[in-house]
Amino acid sequence: MANEAASVQEGTRERGVRQELTGIVTSAKMQKTIVVKVIRAVQHPLYHRVVRSAKKYYAHDETREARVGDTVRIVSTRPLSKLKRWRLEEVVARSTRA
């Protein structure tokens, strides 16, 4: 308890683990915002086939380093706008397309 109080007093309190997702950038036309398509594969409960489902996330890209086709990792953050709740953590792989 004393250790926790000391870290709070110093202002270096640790946060919980943030959600991380990996996906492909589908749009980078907005200013400091990218659209990331994340594909999940889950087994169908009745038919036991692997079903792929996709969802798009709006992520904050402060330095505008991500381009269309790049594979990126995004992490959850506080709400930044009406739709943005994620921010770009890193570009995992660059797209080979020009």
Tell me the helix content: under 10%
Strand content: over 45%
Computed structural class: mainly beta
**What general outline do the C-alpha atoms trace?**
globular
DSSP summary: helix tally: 1
Q: What is the residue-mean pLDDT, rounded to a whole number?
A: 89
Q: What pattern of helices and strands is seen along the backbone? A: HEEEEE
Distance between the termini: 55 Å
- The main sheet orders its strands as 1-2-3-5-4
> Are there runs of 5+ residues with pLDDT below 50, and where?
none
Say how many strands there are. Answer: 5
Which radius of gyration do the C-alpha atoms yield?
18 Å
Key descriptive features of the protein:
mainly beta; five-stranded mixed β-barrel; 1 helix; 9% helix
Describe this structure as you would to a colleague.
The structure is a single chain. The chain is mainly beta. It is 9% helix and 48% strand. It is built from one helix and five strands; from the N terminus they run αβββββ. It has one helix spanning 2-10; strands at residues 20-30, 33-43, 50-60, 71-76, 86-93. It has a five-stranded mixed β-barrel with strand order 1-2-3-5-4. A hairpin with a 2-residue loop joins strand 1 (20-30) and strand 2. The chain is globular. The protein starts with a helix and ends in a 5-residue tail after the last strand. 12% of the residues are buried.
